Amino acid sequence: MSEPTIAARMARKYAVMTADATMLERFRSITPAGWACVAATDLEQLGEWHEVLLYRFLLLDLDEIDAFDPLEAIRVLRQQHQINIAVFCFGGDEDIQDEMRLARADRFFARNEMVERLPEFFRQYDWGE
Questions:
Q1: Most buried one in 59, 67, 86, 124, CB count within 10 A?
Q2: What is the CATH number of domain 6-125?
Q3: Nearest partner of 54 among 7, 103, 17, 100, judged by Cα
Q4: What span, in angstroms and rounded, lies between the C-alpha atoms of 116 and 110?
């Protein structure tokens, strides 16, 4: 395993797990300069565990159960890899949100609310470069 460079550790990037192209475009349209939005429908697309650690936070779509299993994604992230980056979930019903809470997802938002709150997270996680 190669060690990440200082520049890689300081890069401002976040991951979005969704198959919803409209939501992804909404996120990207409000992503500030200097930040990178990385989309995936599989946690492995984000890299190995040590590469996932380099993301500032993860947005996880709870309505895209046909594209991926959000519960499996959080279980792999938290239990298998023991990664504790912030996971902000959006969409989904009360049942999946309760399951995600038990699996240690951090916060839950309606779809439009996630778009509205995203600039707050950019400010909160804006350390580094």
A1: 59
A2: 3.40.50.2300
A3: 7
A4: 10
State the Rg of the chain over Cα.
14
- Joined tokens for residue 56: 């500032």
Question: Taking the chain, what is the end-to-end CA distance rounded to the nearest angstrom?
Answer: 24
Q: Of 68, 63, 107, which is closest to residue 85 (Cα–Cα)?
A: 107
Of the candidates 104, 64, 68, 63, the one whose C-alpha atom is nearest the C-alpha of residue 83 is: 104
Give the residue from 12, 9, 11 showing the smallest Cα distance to 122: 12
Inter-residue contact 17 to 70 (CB < 8 Å): yes
Question: CB-based contacts of 95: which residues, under 8 Å, 6+ apart?
Answer: none
The answer to whether the beta carbons of residues 39 and 14 sit under 8 Å apart is no
DSSP H stretches of helix in the chain: 6-10, 21-30, 49-52, 70-75, 94-102, 111-124
8 A C-beta contact, residue 19 and residue 75: no
